Predict the structure.
Amino acid sequence: MKEEDCLLKFEIQGGEFLDSGESSVVIKDYLKKIGIPHPFIRRVLIATYEAEMNVVAHAERGTLCFMIAEKTVVIRVQDKGPGIPDVDLAMQKGYSTATQEVRQMGFGAGMGLPNMKQNSDTLIINTEVGTGTEVIMEFTL
Ligand SMILES: Nc1ncnc2c1ncn2[C@@H]1O[C@H](COP(=O)(O)OP(=O)(O)OP(=O)(O)O)[C@@H](O)[C@H]1O
Ligand SMILES: [Mg+2]
């Protein structure tokens, strides 16, 4: 997966709740336009939205890259942020470190990562505490 393989690329700003969720909307329109079946689009959409919102809620900033290779959609999100100290714990339903401020925006149920896992075919999380996190999700048609 090289940088130039990104069909669509988005910048994500931490803490920007109001203008967030853009990438999933644009990716949805793109997949619709090329005739991808609705149930597949739905999976990509849910997982992409959760991945984007995790940058908004937990990191400083990041980028989201959307690519298609053969029959596989790949979403890669890289952020600069605190990283995830215990990924197994973070993957558990209901686990959240979201601040009061983030909860007031309607996030922090601890369901994002479980939803990403459920809706993707492959979920890879590379993270380094104090540096940031990379999430790679694959969806096969
Ligand atoms: N990109 C990230 N950077 C740092 N920590 C993260 C990141 N993504 C997830 N986490 C950690 O993993 C926890 C669980 O993430 P998850 O998306 O499941 O829940 P949430 O974001 O807290 O709430 P929800 O997604 O339901 O609004 C987060 O509370 C946070 O501690
Ligand atoms: Mg989340």
In short: The chain has a mean pLDDT of 95. The two ends are 18 Å apart (CA to CA). The first helix runs from residue 22 to 33. The domain at 3-140 is CATH 3.30.565.10 (Heat Shock Protein 90).
